[in-house]
């Protein structure tokens, strides 16, 4: 993988996973506007600030460190909280776009390159949350969030819900 790259270049054609020795998703979300923002809130407000700025430079998501395994498969060593949040955000964004209008051919290609192509998931989280992440975030076939088994699954749902609520009013 290139030393300096875009999210699309990082994910396209690769399969990125969170190794079992890494902690699960732990970023918090705050739903009440009168309380201090948490990591997920800050992630979105930083993107929004960048989007409304007049800067011409590309947005910097921070650094990521990967361990290459085989066949374009990479274990994320550093940056997995940010990467998980990015994938949740992008999945919600593509879902919102699909509700507003059909994806263009280019957008569909990007979705397949960075989220999922056929049965190939570009990113999977820790083993014990992996199926839930695929069903709830990527495929969006699991709608209920009752009886979540892990704290990380609850935090995934919170991030997904937060992004969904924030993007619901956007065209």
Walk me through the structure.
By secondary structure, the chain is of the alpha/beta class. It has six helices and six strands; from the N terminus they run αβαββααβββαα. The protein has a four-stranded mixed sheet with strand order 2-3-1-6. The protein has a two-stranded antiparallel ribbon with strand order 4-5. The longest helix is centred in the middle third of the chain and has 21 residues. The model has no long low-confidence stretch (mean pLDDT 91).
Write the layout of secondary structure elements.
Blueprint: H1 7-11, E1 15-17, H2 39-52, E2 65-68, E3 73-78, H3 80-100, H4 105-114, E4 116-117, E5 120-121, E6 123-124, H5 127-138, H6 151-168
Parallel strand pairs: 1-3, 1-6
Antiparallel strand pairs: 2-3, 4-5
Helix pairs in contact: 3-6, 5-6
List keywords for this structure.
single chain; four-stranded mixed β-sheet; 6 helices
Q: Give the proportion of residues in helices.
A: 40-55%
Tally of helical runs: 6
Order of helices and strands: HEHEEHHEEEHH
- The Cα radius of gyration reads 16 Å
Measured between the Cα atoms of the first and last residue, the distance is 34 Å
Q: Structural class of the helices, strands and pairings?
A: alpha/beta
Main sheet: strand order: 2-3-1-6
Oligomeric description of these chains:
single chain
Number of DSSP-assigned strands: 6
């Amino acid at each position: 993988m290139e030393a300096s790259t875009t999210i699309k270049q990082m994910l396209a054609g690769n399969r990125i996973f969170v190794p079992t020795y890494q902690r699960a998703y732990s970023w918090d979300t705050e739903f009440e506007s009168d309380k201090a923002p948490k990591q997920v809130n800050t992630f979105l407000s930083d993107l929004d600030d960048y989007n409304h700025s007049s800067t011409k430079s590309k947005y910097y998501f921070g650094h990521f460190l990967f361990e290459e395994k085989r066949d374009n498969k990479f274990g994320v060593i550093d940056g997995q909280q940010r990467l998980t949040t990015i994938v949740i955000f992008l999945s919600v964004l593509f879902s919102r776009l699909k509700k507003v209008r059909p994806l263009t051919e280019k957008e569909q290609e990007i979705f397949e390159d960075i989220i999922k192509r056929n049965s190939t998931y570009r990113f999977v989280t820790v083993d014990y949350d992996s199926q839930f992440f695929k069903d709830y975030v990527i495929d969006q076939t699991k709608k209920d969030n009752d009886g979540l088994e892990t704290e990380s699954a609850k935090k995934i749902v919170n991030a997904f819900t937060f992004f969904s609520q924030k993007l619901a009013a956007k065209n």
